[in-house]
Amino acid sequence: xxxxxxxxxxxxxxxxxxxxxxxxxxxxxxxxxxxxxxxxxxxxxxxxxxxxxxxxxxxxxxxxxxxxxxxxxxxxxxxxxxxxxxxxxxxxxxxxxxxxxxxxxxxxxxxxxxxxxxxxxxxxxxxxxxxxxxxxxxxxxxxxxxxxxxxxxxxxxxxxxxxxxxxxxxxxxxxxxxxxxxxxxxxxxxxxxxxxxxxxxxxxxxxxxxxxxxxxxxxxxxxxxxxxxxxxxxxxxxxxxxxxxxxxxxxxxxxxxxxxxxxxxxxxxxxxxxxxxxxxxxxxxxxxxxxxxxxxxxxxxxxxxxxxxxxxxxxxxxxxxxxxxxxxxxxxxxxxxxxxxxxxxxxxxxx
Length: 351
What we know:
Layout: E1 9-14, H1 18-29, E2 34-40, H2 46-50, E3 55-57, E4 70-73, H3 80-89, E5 93-97, H4 104-117, E6 121-124, H5 131-141, E7 148-156, H6 166-170, H7 177-193, E8 198-204, E9 215-221, E10 226-232, E11 242-246, E12 249-253, H8 259-264, E13 283-289, E14 292-298, H9 306-318, H10 326-345, E15 349-350
Parallel strand pairs: 1-2, 1-4, 2-3, 4-5, 5-6, 7-10
Antiparallel strand pairs: 7-11, 8-9, 8-15, 9-10, 11-12, 12-13, 13-14
């Protein structure tokens, strides 16, 4: 590996917008096994202000030098594919912010290149490490509510005006709520249950300021269960975030993982309480035994996006299995494409 410390992974970060500044750099910088060495910013110097030891570079090629092992791509969506190809062909391991591509065909090509170049490629699906989702996963894995028959996840906000990010305001292929929030919700379900049998979707634009889809409902049908995923930008009073119903009970959870809001407020990871939710926000589990309905508060699992990079370190250094495999990103994009076709054709799409 590059650098003077062979146990470290030397990182070049492309982009220092919200993704790079909030979701990538804080977790890389607090993990001594990684060294954030270079940040590509076209004009600004925000990374240098927060991380004085980091070198700011003005072109992407400066991240592809021999002193960099891992390139993290957190640029606007249209740059994900070309930059990932360029980095992998330079022999770098690559993390790409979601969506890895606008189409499953493009994502499949990235997988092929990664194999040919013998480098690791993974997608930053950090919401597999949300505390509330980890709680849902644990309840399902432990069979607390029995066989799941209905799974609902809602991710709602109230958005005013246009996006402050020009590339999002301009829109285009692969830039809308389905690729922003929807892809996270679909990925979470995929990580639990795999590919669905059928997909149905209702995709809408409700705000004139939006550049594309800003309201979605995606239904995934499995042999024994239905998944309903919903997100909107005109929801002033959100309902439950998760509603999971099984043959032995239900789990209801309001509120969302605390990590993003804390990062946006300036908090940084690195202490034992990072990602721990207050007990007032714990979800409720109701289990049925005979004629009795027992309700109890379930402590939310501790979320930690840093575990994404912990996994990546072991994958690079020790050959461990990736938390998010690139082939899984291809499947998730196939589901998104089915949802798009379903909304246009107003019918279920068989996978």
